[in-house]
Write a structure and sequence with these properties.
TIM Barrel; 12-stranded mixed beta sheet; binds S-adenosylmethionine; binds iron/sulfur cluster
Length: 344
């Protein structure tokens, strides 16, 4: 991605970011920290080495990059992590971005959070123009939740969900499916989420980073789980509208929506409109590929955006056609970077 000649700056004036397949980049996901107050077993190893504070971008630096992406067609920004709500002063980034919601340059700013800090931030998020959040919750059983997250307190998430809904935030629950208890818990999660007017999306475990367990052994195919669900629930497939990786069904008994994200068993790449920034300013055009380009030096070396734009346009021009995850009978092929670096 980095070896090719950057495109001439003159060609880039307010041009939309479009890759070699004609896919337009309209969605930027920013991981504002690699740190987290949990250690979910599918995401992190028990003992993690985090980046030094000097390497991580300041919130003003994220904001500068965000405005640059907006200039070239990004209309939606997701703030993620690590756990975004543990980042000091994180609300100031939401406040800076909210001006662009007000003036119509952005359609949406959304957040993915584990919910542990949500009770103290829910009102502030709503006040900054955030209307939708994703909360990750894999179990309603306090003991299993603690086991899965290695330290999490389910009651804090429940409290956070209460405050979020009271504040007016629309909540979607994300749950990673892993072999074991999940098959027995999924119906409870459906009833819980839909009973509170929250959509639920099931995510297949992706082989990102060494987390200390055998991914092959814990992998639960959502294609298999879906077959089970069809035998217990009345499911109606819904037309996809988001351009994202999820397929949605309506569950007639609850009236709620159930999403399936199956990166290993189904390919969503042909309509991919998203790019990602990690907390150190590395720019990734595909979550499922190793390739990235660092924007940090260009960001810190100059107040001019020219070099940054050249790097971004060049990377987008070389956005991979599809991701590199693969699964066969014997091997699960993944990549070395943990999910907490890029935020899913
Ligand atoms: N800490 C926040 C949270 O948990 O929602 C945001 C960051 S987290 C990395 C974003 C999403 O990635 C979460 O929904 C989490 O469940 C999911 N995730 C983490 N590791 C994963 C993996 N190996 N495979 C699939 N999803 C994963
Ligand atoms: Fe933290 Fe989210 Fe990763 Fe869990 S999934 S360890 S909450 S970053």
């Amino acid at each position: 991605m980095t070896n090719t000649q950057p495109i001439l700056p003159a060609l880039m004036q307010a041009a939309p970011l479009t890759d070699s397949l004609g896919r337009k980049v309209t969605y930027l996901r920013i991981s504002v920290t690699d740190r987290c107050d949990l250690r979910c077993s599918y995401c992190m190893a028990e003992h993690m080495q985090f980046m030094s504070h000097n390497d991580v971008l300041r919130l003003e630096e994220f904001y500068r990059l965000a405005t640059l992406f907006m200039r070239h067609g990004v209309r939606k920004i997701r703030i993620t992590g690590g756990e975004p709500l543990v980042r000091k002063n994180i609300m100031s980034l939401f406040e800076m971005l909210s001006a662009h919601l007000d003036n119509g340059e952005l359609d949406e700013v959304v957040v993915t959070t584990n919910g542990s800090q949500l009770s103290r931030h829910a009102e502030g998020l709503f006040a900054a123009g955030i209307r939708r959040i994703n909360v990750s919750l894999d179990s309603l059983n306090a003991d299993r939740y603690r086991l899965l997250t290695r330290c999490g307190d389910l009651s804090k998430v429940m409290n956070g969900l209460d405050r979020a809904q009271e504040a007016g935030l629309k909540v979607k629950i994300n749950a990673v499916a892993m072999k074991g208890a999940f098959e027995n818990e999924v119906d409870d999660l459906i009833r819980f989420a839909h009973g509170r007017g929250m959509d639920l999306t099931l995510i297949e475990e992706m082989p990102l980073g060494n987390v200390g367990h055998d991914r092959k052994a814990s992998f639960l195919s959502l294609a298999e789980l879906e077959k089970d669900l069809w035998s217990r629930w009345s499911l109606t497939p819904l037309a996809s509208g988001t351009g994202g990786p999820a397929r949605y069904m309506r569950i007639e008994e609850t009236g709620g929506k159930l999403g399936f994200i199956t990166p290993l068993s189904c390919n969503f790449c042909s309509s991919c409109n998203r790019v990602r920034l990690d907390c150190a300013g590395k720019f990734y055009t595909c979550m499922g590929s190793e390739g990235s380009v660092s924007l940090r030096e260009a960001l810190r070396d100059s107040s001019s955006d020219e070099r940054l734009e050249a790097l971004i346009f060049d990377a987008v021009a070389h956005k991979p056609h599809h991701h590199n995850f693969a699964m066969d009978r014997d091997v699960m092929q993944g990549i070395g970077r943990h999910m907490s670096v890029l935020g899913g």
